[in-house]
UniProtKB/TrEMBL annotation:
Coiled coil (UniProt feature): none
GO biological process: cell wall organization
Keyword field: Membrane, Signal-anchor, Transmembrane, Transmembrane helix
Cross-referenced PANTHER family: POLYISOPRENYL-TEICHOIC ACID--PEPTIDOGLYCAN TEICHOIC ACID TRANSFERASE TAGU
Record Gene3D superfamilies: LCP protein
Annotated TM spans: none
Name of this chain's protein: Cell envelope-related transcriptional attenuator domain-containing protein
Length: 290
């Protein structure tokens, strides 16, 4: 969702010399920034859990987005929790974005600079607004039967509500591992389609309306000025590479069960922290040639 968000506001095509960048705006242009992107399992309820937890690191110096999906059953230490440890998605239920940010910092040593949150209805609205033609994916019969999709197995073009069901499915042998993989694949497809739209003249003319229609479905702590700053940066320095990873990493967890939490992924914290830091610190060269 973060890339859709950046591209969405980047489509306003604001030139960087049209305003002065100060304070936090200047940091967004020159420093690596960590976004916490949340998909919330809510249709308007007051209390809900996070269905998707994704850390997105944007590095303007080499024009790279790095996406880290944290599996929601990861067993982590939650500040103030009566059992000390619980599934990471319960942190949002107990204390919202602030407690989840603190939980991520304490367990993985990574500070979160900004948050972006989308609930179920917001996801449907954003996808149907940005990609009205839908996303083509391979849907197997297990997903069709479990999620009550009206289609044949194989390649299908999915729109908002059906695409939400597709990325949320977890009732097969791969469980959440398969779900995270589908979420990342769909996100990359959305990015490709957005790039196609904004790189055409006709697409550019439609962007202001897309921005207007989409903003109401996304909650963020980014200020309007920070959004403008990111907009200018994304278009003046286009993203050249997107890398993805998953937490926990391979061989970085064991399956455990606890009375208060149920089935969890008990992490080898040292292994996952080292993998995350290596992933975020690896440099990627910028190619300025056309």
């Amino acid at each position: 969702m973060i890339t859709c968000f950046l591209l969405l506001f980047g489509c306003q095509s604001i030139k960087k010399d049209q305003f002065q960048l100060e304070g936090k705006q200047d940091e967004l242009v020159h420093e690596s920034t960590n976004f916490l992107v949340l998909g919330v399992d809510s249709r308007g309820e007051e209390n809900s859990r996070t269905d998707t937890i994704m850390l997105v690191n944007y590095r303007p110096e080499d024009r790279v987005l790095k996406l880290i999906s944290i599996m929601r059953d990861s067993y982590v230490k939650i500040p103030g929790h009566k059992h000390l440890f619980d599934k990471i998605n319960n942190a949002y239920f107990l204390g919202g974005e602030e407690l989840l940010k603190e939980t991520i910092q304490n367990n993985f040593g990574l500070d979160v600079d900004h948050t972006i949150t989308v609930d179920f209805q917001g996801f449907i609205s954003v996808v149907d607004t940005l990609i009205p033609e839908g996303i083509q994916v391979d849907v197997d019969q297990t997903i069709i039967d479990d999620m009550n999709l009206e289609m044949m197995a194989g390649e299908n073009t999915l729109h908002g509500e059906d695409l939400l069901k597709y990325v949320r499915f977890r009732h097969d042998e791969r469980s959440d591992f398969g779900r995270v993989e589908r979420q990342q694949t769909v996100l990359l497809d959305v990015i490709d389609k957005m790039n196609e739209k904004v790189n055409s003249f006709v697409g550019m003319t439609k962007i202001p309306q897309l921005v207007h229609d989409t903003i109401k479905n996304v909650e963020t702590d980014l200020s309007p000025q920070e959004i403008i700053t990111l907009s200018s940066m994304v278009f003046s320095q286009p993203i050249e590479q997107i890398d993805t990873m998953r937490i926990p990493v391979k061989d970085g967890f064991t399956n455990q069960t606890y009375d208060h939490a149920g089935a969890v992924l008990e992490l080898n914290f040292l292994k996952n922290q080292e993998a995350m830091q290596k992933f975020l610190s690896e440099p990627t060269p910028v190619n300025d040639e056309p």
